[in-house]
Structure formats: structure tokens, C-alpha cells
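Data card: per-record layout.
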Amino acid sequence: MKTTPIRSCQSCGKPFAHGDIVYFVPLDNNVVCLDCAIPHLRTEKRIVEHGTALNNTIQFYSIPAWTKFIAQDHNGKWWAFEEKPELTNGKEWNTFVGRVAQVMPVLSSTLREVNR
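The structure for this 116-residue chain is written out next.
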């Protein structure tokens, strides 16, 4: 079985311990916990391997100040919600109240200080 340096679920944020069995989702290229893997039709098991690898946590370029929830659709798009969204069709997050905006993720290990 392959290993992964990812230290937390890239869907719900649950922390992983060294040696945990986690699930790689090829559809959106994420590593998730069992609870978050259940909706996906195809997953591949991975073992968490802590060590010298970078902690690749997801951050976002810009998140609106009103954001209370962030969710990812089946197609890999991330959304900020003012009110709690609900999963519709098992694929997309929607809410009929409050504001919604698409947000762009980036792995924190790829962020660099900007020299001006």
C-alpha cells in the first residue's frame, strides 16, 4: 500500500495519526478519512507517514469575511458559504439563504513570501 505525508483529511480537516489508513480520491486528488470517502465511488487506500515531508494543508487565496463554511463539489471546485450548505444529488453543495462565492485553494507548502 502506498503512503502519504498528508496529516489531515482534505475534506473535513480531521487530523490523521502516523499509521492511519486513509483514502486517496483520484477524482479530486484529495486524501480523506473513511467518513469522507464513503460518498466516492472510487478510492485507493493510503497509510499516513509522518516524518520530514511537508504538512500540505489547504489554504485559500482569499476568503470573504462573511464565510462560515467551506465545501468542495464533486468536480473539485471550492465554495465559501455564509450559511450552512447541504449536499444535493450527492455531488454539489447548495444553500438558498446567505451569500456564496467560489474560492481558490492552494497547498500551504507552495506559498512563498512576496518580495516587493
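Known properties of this structure: The helical segments are 34-37. The chain is about 5% helix and 35% strand.

See the next section for split statistics.
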